[in-house]
Amino acid sequence: MLNHQGNQDFVPIDRLVSESCTSHLPQIVEPVSVQKFLDRIMQYQVDPAQVGRQICQIIATNSDREILLLQIANTLGVAFQAEGCFVTAVTDNQVAIPHAWWQSKSDGANSSDIVADLTKTSEFCQTTILNSPLISPVLAQVLADGEVAAISDIQDCPATNLPNSLTTPLPFRAILVAPVRFGAAINGMIMVGKSQPYEWSETDRQQLEAVSDSIAIAISQIHKTQEITTLNQHLQQQAKYQNLLRKVASSIDTSSELDLILQRIIENTADTLEVDRGQILLLRYTDPLFQTRSPNQTPRARVELVCETPLRRRSTARTKNQFWISESSLCDRAFNSVPQSLALADTGEFIRKEPLKVTEILNLEGTRSLLMLPLLGASGQGTVLGFLVLQHSKPRTWELEELEVVESVAAQITTAIIQTQTLKQIQALVEDRTSQLQRSLDMQATLYKQTLRQVEQLRRLNQLKDEFVATMSDALRNPLTSMTVAIQMLKTANLTPKHLSYLEILETECIRETTLINDLLELQELESQQTSFPVAEINLDSLIHNAVEEFDRKLADNRKLADKKLTWKVNLPKPIPLLETHPESLKRILIELLTNAGKFSAAGTAVVVEVSQTAAHIVLSVSNIGRGISAEDLPYIFDKFRRGTGVTEKGIAGTGLGLALVKCLVQHLNGTIDVSSSPSKNNVSRNPSKAAETVELWCTCFTLTLPQFPEEISNLEA
Predict the structure, then answer these.
(1) Are the CB atoms for 77 and 102 separated by under 8 Å?
(2) CA–CA gap between residue 445 and residue 249 (Å, rounded)
(3) CA 626 to CA 603: how far, in whole Å?
(4) Is the CB of residue 284 less than 8 Å from the CB of residue 302?
């Protein structure tokens, strides 16, 4: 018989014996005479060896434990000429199922043996504990003492005086009970009974004990068979559960669609656990930040049925498959049971309390057992994402192994939901970043096109500028040349000194303007890289002295510079190193640097030209003592038309093109030029033109670094 949980009830042994006896025993016959009783004893003698061989043959030819015990009981009953025989297995001093009850229809000499119905057995062995002598205190006493018990008339036994509620009459007057030992432990019992009083002899005791060894083997074999069967069933069940987990993992790995993943998982789970219906419910919180729960607090959330098996027609509108969690007592109870599952072996009144809307959505009609497992976050204590629901149409006890495997499935469902949500968030983020990047690329493309247009415009403007400079230079050179010729012609005439001074001023300005125009043209050619510089080996000593001498002539022609009475100092190493470069460009660089030094040197100071060699480079430096270059002007000293602060106010002549021209020439010679300016040790000097004025002296140095052999350097750089 199955209880409401689906398990076999314990079968009280007193009811078993009573029912079997009342259904199969004939009415107790009249007592027979003593002589007839003795004659029957003499006619039959039990041969323990023969009975043992029969039992061994039964063991060898029967694998069904119920039939095996039944045939053993039949054999013993016939062998002992008894009206009934009871054979049972014993586990831990408890009468175990299976057990067999044989009863004879014996009626005088003509008798035929029949077999009582076997007790129905469950898949697993169940036991009945002998707490009180309900069948007979003899059974409990035999289990306790482990000795053979012989009762010639059970009505004379003290137990027969017990109230009817505590004892059940046996259809026997005489019983013989013996324990069955396998090794040192009792693993079974044998009871034979006679319907009339009977004096059991010592031979009867010995014969029953003698056959007990064979019965012990049979019961032991039954135990082993039960253990093997149980183990095989357990292994099959574990394999089935492992296969379910593999299918769940495969569903997650082979698909990215959450609805398809959940549908496959619930179908496999319901099929493996052999339930009638499986469902997955997800919670839609009105407060997305609902992360923790207070005790007995139910959040405001909607429950949505997202998948189920078997499939049925449902509304396509999501709102039709939703209800508030507070509307369902089952969902509310399951939520407040988190992290534990809600397992109902018999739903009873719970289903009838559910509103019609919830019953229809969850298809609860006809459900007798229910299991709801929460889908929790990774920490196990986080947000409840939903529930895994299993329904069955019959009462069912949810076994521990079933709960464990369903918990594993629920954990994988949670992982799939979180992974899918995370993937969607990442995809949305990637799409957003891709959109931003595309907009940025479009913007860059627009800016690039605009830059190209601007570069083209600058190129055209630069070309127009070059053409304009060339045109203007030619246009200015012609009148300046004419003016210079006219000045030279006027000098030959007899003019007063005053007129001659005017002519000198005109000539000086013509020369300055001509120089400015020439510098502009040369700078324009250098910037447009239209000039080639053939390299030649030069003598540094002669080149430097030629540059100094040429500048001396300029000083002599310039009264302001001549009044400073500057001196020159040239420091050359011994031996003088060789240098391959463009002689005219280097000479022009030195003249410009010397001119610049002369303009800003203090009166009576020396301009120093120094040459040194480092590795594959020649270093030339031009330094002077005088007005320095401020830190603000140093970064821009080589810019075109850029002059130092206060230079124009001081009346120092210049166009602002000399150092810019030097920079371009140095770059075309593959060299570098640096400038430094710092206070000098003798940092105070008096201005000879203004006795009261003192000038702070600075040491300014231009350092020119040129490759000693440009072609070799080019090869090394390549």
Answers:
(1) yes
(2) 47
(3) 8
(4) yes
Half-sphere exposure of 411 (CA within 13 A, CB side): 12
d(CA 77, CA 24): 15
Please tell me whether the peptide bond between 98 and the residue prior to it is cis, using omega within 30 degrees of 0. Answer: yes
Q: How far apart are CA 600 and CA 652, in angstroms?
A: 8
The tens digit of pLDDT for each residue in 645-702 reads: 656 555 566 667 788 888 888 988 889 999 998 888 765 555 555 544 566 788 999 9
Which of the listed residues 213, 228, 243 is the one where a domain comes to its end?
228
The residues, ordered by sequence, that sit 6+ positions from 559 with a Cβ below 8 Å of its Cβ are none
Residue 611's identity, in one-letter code, is V
In the chain, the N- to C-terminal Cα span, in Å, equals 99
In a shared domain, residues 201 and 156: yes
Residue 669 in contact with residue 585, Cβ under 8 Å? yes
Does residue 666 sit within a domain?
yes
Residue 633 lies in a domain: yes
- Torsion angle, alpha carbons of 267, 270, 275, 280, to 10: -80
Can you give the residue range of the structural domain that contains 94?
48-105+116-160+167-228
Whole-number CA gyration radius for the chain: 61
Cα–Cα–Cα angle for 306, 309, 310, rounded to 5 degrees: 130
**Phi then psi for 82, rounded to 5 degrees?**
-100, 160
Residues in the chain: 718
Give the total number of structural domains in the chain. Answer: 4
Q: Is 100 helix (H, G, I), strand (E, B) or coil?
A: strand
Q: What confidence tens digit (pLDDT) does each residue in 42-101 have?
A: 444 567 777 778 887 787 777 676 777 888 888 888 888 888 888 888 876 666 655 677
Question: Please, are residues 22 and 14 in contact by the beta-carbon 8 Å criterion?
Answer: no
Note the pLDDT tens digit of each residue in 603-653. Answer: 888 899 999 988 889 999 999 998 888 888 888 888 877 666 656 555 566
Q: Is the pTM of this model over 0.85?
A: no
**How far is it, in rounded angstroms, from Cα 47 to Cα 394?**
53
- Report the alpha-carbon distance of residue 72 to residue 60 in Å, rounded: 12
Residue 375's DSSP bridge partners are: 386
Query: Following DSSP, what letter does each residue of 107-143 receive, concatenated?
Result: BTTB--EEEPPPPP--SS--EE---S-SS-HHHHHHH
Q: ω before 310 within 30° of 0 (cis)?
A: yes
Domain boundary among 364, 398, 432: 398
Q: Round the average pLDDT of the chain to a whole number and report it.
A: 77
Cα 525 from chain centroid (whole Å): 64
